[in-house]
Design brief:
The protein is built from 25 helices and 18 strands. The chain has 613 residues and is α+β, with helices and mostly antiparallel strands. It has three domains: 186 residues, Aminohydrolase, N-terminal nucleophile (Ntn) domain (Glutamine Phosphoribosylpyrophosphate, subunit 1, domain 1), CATH 3.60.20.10; 222 residues, Rossmann fold (3-Layer(aba) Sandwich); 88 residues, no CATH class.
Length: 613
């Protein structure tokens, strides 16, 4: 698949680029260009990359003539400068449109298509291209470094490179008259207007949800022959299996990833699903050695990234790559559309309402840094409630970053309400803000879809996400809150609410009771498994120590103290799991940033961790 673009917003700027070899430069504004789809007429030109589904429906919805070329459909849809019409397209894609002296660049609703990085003058799908620009200083952004070490990723439009931005999921930019403006396809304002606006009975909603889910799968499998599923043994992957089997009775392959010696493994449930629905099933158990491939992952990403499941996504795509599948269906993103961690959100709501936040802050301060098991648990749960409106962080705290980094101390803007200048007057207000900015935009698109789609692209696999189909998203986000997360605020605060309420109503009759009646336990990656081997830990410490990055930005004494702290926790038999998980997350962040820097700044060619030792 052809997936490369590098160009300039201004034609004259193309001559400013330093490159050893310039190819395909005959295209206006472009230094390099390889495209999947192309169309041009007397006034417009469009290039597009990725997968488009159900173009017939899109054309009908937009009132344009039918075409099998998505680039042509994009041109026709934008004739009246209604660039937001891109919302009508289904798929995982990126497009560039030249029209009426404007340049429009856009990404699909969930950001599964090619990434887009840009400055005021240039744009590319590879951040390394900016190293080729004359007079452009390719350097780290201290604020982004701090954010990455805290949560495992920069927050779009920020990247880790000074002066380079990234186009977020579901965002498009318009370059006109030497000015860049960006817009969201599905903005918070639109969500706010539609929230709980749908007047529908529960029975009608279940029927409609099933119809939309099956339509999403139908448009994705179309005329495909070799269909595969990612299977975890839960409601989401189980729902894809059940719906697919109602539509398609041919051969289907299923893939599942587990962890060796994991008491919470969902592999038995995935096998059960495969047996019930006639899926050719294969699994793989991670033993920790997979982290040796981290340089391959960091080389493929434009910006450093670390999230609990990144190695799971990499490993399953590496396994899927051994077979010949036309499309793989994943259950990713469904939790985030309905809303997550609502008990903590409800407790945060009541804590704020009754002015208990200062007390929680004192408790957080008193229990911070403790290794005692009980106090560790108190600190962990208290902070989850206190910071329920923030981006999830298992990384370094602001106080730790102040000691560790040589950069001047900066306040981390992690609160989604403060970051977006919003205020919650009721629990439903807080739910609305949380589900849009934290769950859907950040956790759903910027983390989960980002890692899954990038790992699939690394192995040239066609991975798609039926639950993140735009029709399903819009329907669910218009539902009354109680159909998404049931219970009153008090019931939810007590742990008596039910997440994915409508989704479970739809699928409970279709799935084995072993899945529908069990208490959810798994779903996360036990990160300490990657650091259990002492020789590997020693190698990782040396990689971080030896990198010039450490000397440039880290306090080496703090690093050594951190390594010693990790050694004591990783060996402690009575250490609480989440304490071990959190410190492993921090080491993963340090290692990922170091390897990413070595690859993208020092052009290190290594493919395994041992190459960097």
């Amino acid at each position: 698949m052809k997936t490369k673009f590098f160009g300039a917003f201004n034609k004259q700027n193309v001559t400013d680029v330093v490159a050893n070899k310039i190819e395909n430069s005959q295209q206006p504004h472009f230094i390099e260009l390889e495209m999947s789809f192309h169309y041009e007429d007397e006034t417009s030109q469009c290039m597009a990359w990725g997968n488009f589904y159900d173009l017939r429906k899109t054309c009908n919805d937009l009132g344009i003539s039918l075409t099998e070329n998505p680039a042509e459909a994009i041109v026709k849809s934008a004739k009246q400068e209604k660039y937001s019409n891109i919302e009508a397209f289904y798929g995982e894609f990126t497009f560039i449109l030249f029209q009426n002296e404007k340049i429009i660049i856009g990404r699909d609703l969930i950001g599964a298509g090619l990434p887009v990085f840009y400055t005021n003058d240039y744009f590319s799908n590879s951040i390394d291209d900016f190293k080729r620009i004359a007079d452009f200083e390719f350097s780290l952004d201290p604020t982004a470094v701090r954010t990455f070490l805290h949560i495992g990723t920069p927050i779009p439009p920020q990247t880790i490179i000074n002066g380079v931005k990234q186009l977020a999921a579901g965002e498009y930019l318009v370059f006109s008259k030497n000015e860049i403006k960006t817009y969201f396809i599905f903005s918070y304002q639109k969500y706010d207007k539609q929230f709980s606006s749908l007047k529908i009975s529960e029975q009608e909603a279940v029927i409609e949800l099933e119809r939309l889910h099956k339509n999403a799968i139908k448009r994705r499998i179309a005329d495909k022959q070799n269909i595969a599923l990612l299977m975890s043994g839960g409601y989401d992957s189980g729902g894809n299996v059940a719906a697919l089997r109602d539509l398609y009775d041919g051969k289907v392959s299923g893939y599942s990833i587990g962890f060796k010696d994991d008491a919470w493994s969902e592999l038995p449930l995935a096998r059960l699903l495969a047996q019930k629905f006639g899926i050719n099933f294969s699994d793989y158990q991670i033993d920790g050695s997979e982290i040796d491939d981290l340089p391959v992952i960091m080389r493929s990403l434009g910006t450093p990234f670390q999230e609990n499941g990144i190695m799971v996504n990499y490993t399953v795509m590496k396994r899927v790559n051994e077979d010949n599948n036309d499309i793989i269906l994943g259950g990713d993103g469904n939790d985030q559309v309905y809303g997550t961690a609502m008990q903590q959100v409800a407790l945060h709501y009541y804590s704020s309402k009754f002015f208990l936040n200062p007390v929680q802050s004192v408790i957080s301060s008193l229990t911070s840094g403790t290794h005692q098991k009980l106090l560790s648990r108190v600190n962990f749960h208290n902070n989850r409630i206190l910071h329920a409106g923030n981006y999830t962080s298992f990384g370094f705290k602001a106080s730790e970053l102040k000691k560790m980094l040589k950069y001047p101390d900066e306040k981390l803007m992690m609160d989604v309400m403060k970051r977006n200048h919003l205020k919650a007057k009721s629990f439903d207000d807080l739910y609305k803000i949380h589900t849009y900015y934290k769950d859907f935009i950040h956790d759903g698109n910027h983390l989960i879809i980002f890692k899954a789609s990038n790992m699939a692209r690394l192995f040239n696999q066609h991975l798609s996400f039926p639950y993140m189909d735009k029709d399903s998203i819009e329907f669910i986000m218009q539902l009354p809150r109680e159909m998404r997360f049931s219970g009153t605020p008090k019931e939810i605060a007590k742990g008596h609410g039910s997440g994915k309420y409508l989704h479970k109503k739809y699928l409970k009759p279709k799935l084995p009771k072993e899945i529908t009646e069990r208490k959810k336990q798994g779903g996360f990656a036990p990160l300490p498994i990657f650091f259990k081997d002492k020789n590997r830990r020693t190698m990782i410490y040396n990689i971080i120590r030896k990198s010039k990055l450490s000397g440039d930005i880290f306090d080496k004494n703090y690093l050594e103290a951190f390594f010693q702290d990790l050694e004591s926790i990783i060996h402690a038999k009575d250490a609480w799991f989440w304490h071990q998980q959190t410190i492993a997350f921090k080491l993963f962040n340090l290692l990922s940033l170091t390897i990413w820097w070595e690859v993208h700044f020092k052009n290190h060619k290594g493919t395994t961790l041992s190459d960097f030792d």
